[in-house]
Amino acid sequence: MLTIKAFTFNAFQENTYVIYNEHATAIIIDPGCYEVSEQQVLLDFIETNKLEVKRMLFTHAHIDHVLGAAFIEKKFGLKMEMHELELSVWRAIPSYASNYGFVYQAAEEPDSFLSIQDTIQLGTDILTIIFTPGHSPGSISFYCEAQQFIIAGDVLFFKSIGRTDLAGGNYDTLIQSIKTNLFTLPADTKVYAGHGITTSIGQERTHNPFLQ
């Protein structure tokens, strides 16, 4: 059985997720820890729970979701894993990081990529990958059917949706992704978003003003 621990990091209030099982095997999704104090909070949790971090995964590669990638790479010897269409998004970060006041330290470029054919396995627990572009061209979500939750990045929020005015964003594509690939999931599926509070598929299907 999987346990989800959420952290809120950096000036964008980005949600970083540590997912782990009863054998203390873990993955980190979207490490946004930028300040040394944020990195230490994450590290303390991992060390206190004696977690063995196996993979570093990304829903997408906007700056707020990758600020901690170099730290995780160095600390645990892990490479970034994302959809191939996010590579150009990630490569663009140095051109604008200073505009947001960040000194960006890049991790090594990924040498393998995630696709919808892949599954993420922690022991007997499985996450499947759902392609959810629109906020960014290669945005993906990680879905656990057995426990009915999804890590959705910046695709779907509580009563809101991801912005589409950034490079590679497309409003119509985002709406199609949500309605076709997320709203077909069971209503009680918990949605762990890239920002803000947890919601559910049923809640957003019924009450999200952008999707009525």
Class computed from helices, strands and strand pairing: alpha+beta
List the helices and strands in order. EEEHEHHEHHEEEEEEHEEH
Assign the CATH topology: Metallo-beta-lactamase, Chain A
Helix content: 25-40%
| Overall average pLDDT | 97
Poorly predicted runs are: none
Helix count, DSSP H or I runs of 4 or more residues: 7
Straight-line N-to-C gap:
34 Å
Strand order of the biggest β-sheet: 6-7-8-9-12-13
Going by CATH, the architecture would be 4-Layer Sandwich
Cα-atom Rg, whole angstroms? 16 Å
Number of domains: 1
DSSP summary, beta strand count: 13
Q: Main sheet?
A: 6 strands, mixed
Task: Describe the overall structure.
By secondary structure, this protein is of the alpha+beta class. It contains seven helices and 13 strands. The protein has a single domain (3-207), classed as Ribonuclease Z/Hydroxyacylglutathione hydrolase-like (Metallo-beta-lactamase, Chain A, 4-Layer Sandwich).
